[in-house]
Amino acid sequence: FLGWCAAVILAGAAAGLLGLTLAVLFERPAGVIRFLSYAIFLHGTIILAATAVIYRKKRLAALAALAGVMLLSLTAVRAFLLEPHWLEVNRYRIVAPKITRPLRIVVIADPQIDKIGHYEREVLRLAMAEKPDLLLFAGDYIQAFREDQQRLCREFNELLREMDIQTPLGAFAVRGNVDPLQWMEIFQDAGVRAVGETRSFDLGEVQLTCLGLRDSYRTSPVRYPPTGGRFHILLGHVPNFALGNGDADLIVAGHTHGGQLQLPWLGPVVTNSRLPRKLAHGFNVLPGGGKMIVSRGIGMERGYAPRFRFLCRPELVVVELVPGEEGATDERK
Hints:
The chain is built from 6 helices and 15 strands. It is an alpha/beta fold.
């Protein structure tokens, strides 16, 4: 009997190793992650359940196997069913000596829509309910197969137009790395200015520089007009550009999803950026003195990837810029 169990385990391990090798050779990275998630949460649960039955007369071994089944099942429920739509609204208060009145900025990053439903509508409703002075879209709006992209651009555009976006300082969008070539159609006549190449905008006491996708990947300093003492915001999709522009007053980016999978004490496992892991999500102060916010995004990786988040809830970012003296304390609510 024990020999039979060992043979089954070895056969399963060999099949898993063969499958992983084929996935690495012929699949995209997202496909490899999908394969591993199936191996852990589906096959792992089955094997542990079978182990509990086989060793039911050995109480300790059976209880340990059942505990493993419960742990994997609860983790799967949280990661695949709860967290992907468990939106968190994170508020950051930043003291800005260069402005004379409070300003509210809302950041929407990485929806990565492959269909539009209640969750996407609710996120936009919450964003507009904040009554922002400035609305920033940080890229990755649609992630779908080519035959669906045109339809989704049209549907997303209709949704934005329903929201009747009106903000005192405007609404701006930059391109993400998964967006289709016709991404600007999403924002046509919707009250949002889509910016395809690096360009600066004078918004009174604020200067906003929107980065083209290629420039957001670079770590060299961005060229922009003199700020004239205005509060300078740099908006880009991939946060790599923060490494060369730490003197900007505020850097806003997305792309990393906060790792989408975080582990206790480690944080994000993968960030797909050149930033150190601790800088790849949330609020940080850069060596040059500038503030940086990298949003975890409101969506998740789609396409060939498994649809999950773990210990990394989607977020809507709200930034409160308040006048104050240099050196005053910033805070997160």
